[in-house]
């Protein structure tokens, strides 16, 4: 029998088969993972030169994961197909980081994060339903509807138009959502071909670096030096948070029921709204209501 959510990125970090789950530690870890993910996005948002900051952050995250891989079982990409997919995942990650930096420049953290993460879930749900044979149910349709409605509220409330997706001001967030969906689907396919998760993540991070380097191609040495001098501790914190968020998420999936796990992980959308307020961004009530609606839709799509 086909496993629930198999074929979608909701199942891409498939836990080991077990009959019992730790319902005390697991949910707390997943909420912490969601908090860390929103936090490192907030740290990136708070910097002036986001391209150089993200380059240094992902470089650090890749190196941390590389050390974990080399001191553990070593690289485990057992066949050419898994390796190719891992590399392509890195290409999509690189494009995601490029569009992320532009999205954070163009909009508030709460609004851009909601569009990127909520939109990615809708894209994966559509692809999985149409091309991968994934069954969908009423709550999935309701979740997709809430995500779309939330995006309309975020943009329509500010412009006075009811049906406004904010294509122009949020184009980078929408593009980022597509790339997020793409690399998650690739992650799943790589795992289907027996790739080990840390090896996969490490390859993807390292492959994404040339794209980030291209993003800071103007005066790269000066920009990197400036970021290290002024935000060195923030780079270290962000790189550690990004890596920890991923690894904690993996462990949380192993000890928590999958549906609950993904739902808790999507709470990062709510955390992003809170961080947006802490950053004292000019976030409107429409953006708060819209982002919250997107978050609720994401939870329904996870069930």
UniProtKB/TrEMBL annotation:
The keyword Secreted does not apply. The keyword Transmembrane applies. It comes from Bdellovibrio reynosensis. Gene3D superfamilies: 1.10.3730.20. The lineage of its organism: Bacteria, Pseudomonadati, Bdellovibrionota, Bdellovibrionia, Bdellovibrionales. The chain crosses the membrane at residues 54-73, 85-104, 110-132, 144-166, 172-192, 199-216, 236-253, 260-279. Residues 25-155, 175-302 form the EamA domain. InterPro entries: EamA_dom (IPR000620), EmrE-like (IPR037185). It comes from the Bacteria. Keywords: Membrane, Transmembrane, Transmembrane helix. This is DMT family transporter.
């Amino acid at each position: 029998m086909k496993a629930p959510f198999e074929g979608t990125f909701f199942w891409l970090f498939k836990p080991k088969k077990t009959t019992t789950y730790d319902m005390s530690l697991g949910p707390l870890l997943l909420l912490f993972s969601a908090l860390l993910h929103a936090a490192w996005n907030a740290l990136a948002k708070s910097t002036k030169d986001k391209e150089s900051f993200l380059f240094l952050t992902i470089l650090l995250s890749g190196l941390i994961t590389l050390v974990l891989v080399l001191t553990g079982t070593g690289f485990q990409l057992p066949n050419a197909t898994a390796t190719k997919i891992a590399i392509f995942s890195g290409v999509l990650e690189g494009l995601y980081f490029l569009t992320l930096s532009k999205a954070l420049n163009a909009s508030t953290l709460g609004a851009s994060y909601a569009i990127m993460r909520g939109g990615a879930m809708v894209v994966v749900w559509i692809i999985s339903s149409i091309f991968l044979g994934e069954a969908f149910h009423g709550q999935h349709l309701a979740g997709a509807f809430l995500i779309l409605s939330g995006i309309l509220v975020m943009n329509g409330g500010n412009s006075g138009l009811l049906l406004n997706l904010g294509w122009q001001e949020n184009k980078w967030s929408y593009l980022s959502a597509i790339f997020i969906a793409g690399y998650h689907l690739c992650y799943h396919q790589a795992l289907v071909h027996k790739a080990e998760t840390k090896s996969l993540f490490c390859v993807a991070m390292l492959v994404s670096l040339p794209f980030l380097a291209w993003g800071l191609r103007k005066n790269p040495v000066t920009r990197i030096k400036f970021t290290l001098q002024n935000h060195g501790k923030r780079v270290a914190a962000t790189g550690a948070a990004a890596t920890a968020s991923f690894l904690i998420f993996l462990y949380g999936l192993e000890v928590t029921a999958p549906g609950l796990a993904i739902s808790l992980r999507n709470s990062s959308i709510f955390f992003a709204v809170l961080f947006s307020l802490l950053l004292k961004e000019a976030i409107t009530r429409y953006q708060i209501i819209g982002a919250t609606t997107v978050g609720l839709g994401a939870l329904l799509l996870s069930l």
